[in-house]
Write a structure and sequence with these properties.
The protein has 337 residues and is α/β, with parallel strands linked by helices. It has helices spanning 31-43, 59-68, 98-112, 131-143, 157-169, 192-199, 236-240, 246-253, 256-262, 266-274, 290-297, 306-316, 326-329, and strands at 4-6, 13-15, 17-20, 48-50, 77-82, 117-122, 147-152, 174-177, 202-205, 280-285. Helix 2 (59-68) runs parallel beside helix 3 (98-112). The longest helix has 15 residues, at 98-112.
């Protein structure tokens, strides 16, 4: 069964393996399979579920809400996000303006079938809306009881500090950051993590398996397995592209002896690795089959000895991306329409 951790400087506990439905619900898998995956997560002790309004253009929220219908609401932590375009893509169907934020939370609650979300997250930083306007909207949503806590996703260290200071002035707190983080993508370590610790946030990390590359199923010099994310034309192939390099894939295969020594699969090693960071509250994992959920949960509670953590660094060497500027470089410089 999964272990639980506090999220940021708050009293909220979440499952350290959190179920996320990006790239799956409403797009890659049928609704009945999605429901089976959610049931498997609940059976494994996962109580925390993460989605976003943009996933499958709002369909993923609806699928998750349907799958959780009938569950005791107080026993769940339901997270969603706002920023990216939804609906028909009108001029105010995107960003973190007060209009879009206030309208989006109501839409998310309706689709999720709940009166409130436990965590409402700014899915990116909006360069075209004053931060004070965004944070005031979040403050009002918290006071209205539509969200219990507020978080951010892929914000830089400076943006986190500024947002946290405004939140404090407005009488609430930011408690989480949701960045990409894995053995191969460590750009948050030098700046985002220290800023988060200072401000009382912890990380809910996405892509701990580097879009599946760290599972070891992609072999250097060979075509991707049929049906894998690297062959998915709906978005999976594009997102995994940066890791599909023979040097990277060769180094990843060198991690297999480490996983064997710990009695873990390669995928479990990848999830366990991110959870060694004391600022990580949870690793987000998705699933296209129920059995994947049960396997991922086995990474919960694993302690990787320091000598094996060092060996992982030696094996991966210079294929690891560590540049903290990548957070800003990968963020939209203007509001996406």
């Amino acid at each position: 069964m999964v272990n639980y951790r506090y999220l940021g400087n708050s009293g909220l506990k979440i499952s350290e393996i959190t179920y996320g439905n990006w790239l799956t619900h409403g797009s890659q898998v049928e609704n009945d399979v999605a429901t089976q995956c959610v049931r498997a997560a609940l059976d494994a002790g996962i109580s925390t579920f993460d989605t976003a309004d943009v996933y499958a253009n709002t369909k993923a929220e609806q699928v998750l809400g349907d799958a959780l219908a009938g569950e005791r609401r107080e026993s769940l932590e339901i997270f969603t996000k706002v920023y990216w375009p939804t609906g028909p893509g009108g001029p105010n169907d995107t960003g973190l303006s007060r209009k879009h934020v206030m309208e989006s939370i109501d839409g998310s609650l309706r689709r999720l079938g709940t009166d409130y979300v436990d965590l409402y997250q700014a899915h990116r930083y909006d360069t075209e809306t004053p931060l004070t306007e965004t944070m005031q909207a979040f403050a009002d949503i918290v006071r209205q009881g539509k969200a219990l806590y507020i978080g951010v996703s892929e914000w830089t260290a400076d943006q986190i500090r500024a947002g946290a200071a405004l939140a404090k002035d407005l009488g609430f707190q930011l408690i989480s950051s949701q960045p990409q983080y894995s053995m191969l993508w460590r750009v948050i370590e030098d700046e985002v993590v220290p800023a988060s610790k200072e401000a009382g946030l912890s990380q809910i990390v996405w892509s701990p398996m580097a879009q599946g590359v760290l599972s070891g199923k992609y072999l250097p010099g060979e075509a991707p397995p049929a049906g894998s994310r690297a062959t998915d034309t709906k978005g999976g192939a594009e997102s995994i592209g940066r890791f599909m390099d023979d040097d990277v894939l060769t180094r990843v295969q060198g991690l297999r002896p480490v996983a064997d020594e710990l009695g873990l699969s390669m995928a479990q090693l990848a999830v366990a690795w991110v959870l060694q960071n004391d600022n990580v509250a949870a690793a987000l994992v998705g699933a296209s089959r129920p059995e994947q959920v049960a396997e991922n949960v086995k990474a919960s509670g694993v302690t990787i000895p320091e000598e094996l953590m060092a060996r992982i660094d030696d094996v991966l060497g210079d294929v690891v991306e560590r540049d903290p500027a990548m957070t800003a470089r990968n963020a939209p410089s203007t509001r996406v329409a």
